[in-house]
Amino acid sequence: MTKVKNFNNRPGFIWLDGRFIKWNQAKLHVLSHGLHYASCVFEGARIYNGKIFKLNEHTKRLFFSSKTLGFKLPYREKVINKACEEIVKKQKIKNGYLRPFAWRGSEMMAISAQNTTIHVAIATWEMSTYFNKRKKFNGIKLKTSKWIRPPSNTAPTQAKAAGLYMICTLSKHIAEKKGFDDSLMLDSNGYVAESTGANIFFVKNNKLYTPIADCFLNGITRQTVIKLAKKNNIKIIEKRILPRELLKADEIFLTGTAVEITPISQIDNKKFNVGEITKKLISLFSDLVEKN
Q1: 125: which strand partners?
Q2: How many whole angstroms separate alpha carbon 292 and alpha carbon 289?
Q3: SS3 of 96, please?
Q4: Annotated catalytic sites, by residue?
Q5: For a surface tag, which of 25, 35, 96, 246 has the fewest beta carbons within 10 Å of its beta carbon?
Q6: Considering only CA atoms, which of 15, 7, 11, 9 is closest in space to residue 86?
Q7: Same-domain status, 166 and 263
Q8: What are the φ and ψ backbone dihedral angles of 273, each rounded to 5 degrees?
Q9: Is the CB of residue 160 less than 8 Å from the CB of residue 62?
């Protein structure tokens, strides 16, 4: 992952509650509900050549996520879109990452938070690749996690909500300590779900497979890759996938805003090659974002 030091004290600005605030002055109260009870939603979008990729889709999902968590953003979608574009220009980001997010404030300190103020902020920074460039092209290693994605009737799994990511942090830390780059996460029924922050695809007999997005995000990059595959006559199948099926794959890759399309070279002790369909989709995706 591209390292950026001192996120708490960087030059420039962050958009916070309708104003541009100096980066190191963009703060929240320590008793904010979003900090204590995870009533926070967020987005992550990529910037290519100064333009935000799929901005409308990301903003719509931010509003969907907040509605799912039971609070309403105090701005319209077009205001958020404009603020996103303005902060990218103000920070002079050419190729980077955009993080809009919203959370409940500190007026109440209890599980119930009906009367809290809703805050919205947008930050952006330069980022080239999530994993280092060598791994980006040669593939990353996944370790199967002991933590599982929660069923959709136990958590707001279709929202990009902060609380859902703690098991991802735990999983990724364990994987890294064991020499892996990320974790493979299963669902409550033992089927393949995703990695800690990206969707997963595999190729078998020139067909492309991906899990049904029923307990994890149907990622915007995931949707983009499915469209690219269909447009280029690559058969795509969405189904429930057992780990043993995944281990018999010809090639495997992740998709996500941060990881884009990243090949997988190993899952646990099983190794894989970076295949031609993965390479083709990487090329098609690169062409798409260049036209953004």
Answers
A1: 97
A2: 5
A3: strand
A4: 160
A5: 25
A6: 15
A7: yes
A8: -95, 155
A9: yes
* Position 283, amino acid: S
Distance between CA atoms of residues 57 and 78, nearest Å: 12
Residue 161: exposure state from Cβ atoms within 10 A (0-12, 13-18, ≥19): buried
Q: What is the secondary structure of 175-203 as a DSSP string?
A: HHHTT-SEEEEEETTS-EEEESSSEEEEE
Strand 207-211, strand 236-239: pairing? parallel
Summarize pLDDT for 108-166 with one digit per residue, the tens: 999 999 999 999 999 999 987 766 666 677 899 999 999 999 999 999 999 999 999 99
CB hemisphere CA count around 62 (13 angstroms): 30
pLDDT, tens only, 227-270: 999 999 999 999 999 999 999 999 999 999 999 999 999 999 99
The reply to whether the predicted model has a pTM over 0.85 is: yes
Angle at 123 between CA 70 and CA 21, to 5 degrees: 100
CA angle 131, 48, 6 (to 5 degrees): 55
CATH number at residue 91: 3.30.470.10
3-state secondary structure of 113: coil
Expressed as residue numbers, the domain containing 201 is: 133-290
Has residue 7 been placed in a domain? no
d(CA 122, CA 289): 22
Residue 195: which CATH number? 3.20.10.10
User: Quick one: which of 143, 148, 94 has its CA closest to 267?
Assistant: 143
Six-digit token string for 70:
């039971």
Which amino acid is it at 125?
A: W
CB atoms within 10 A of CB 118: 19
What total number of domains does the chain contain? 2
| Number of residues that this document lists for the chain | 292
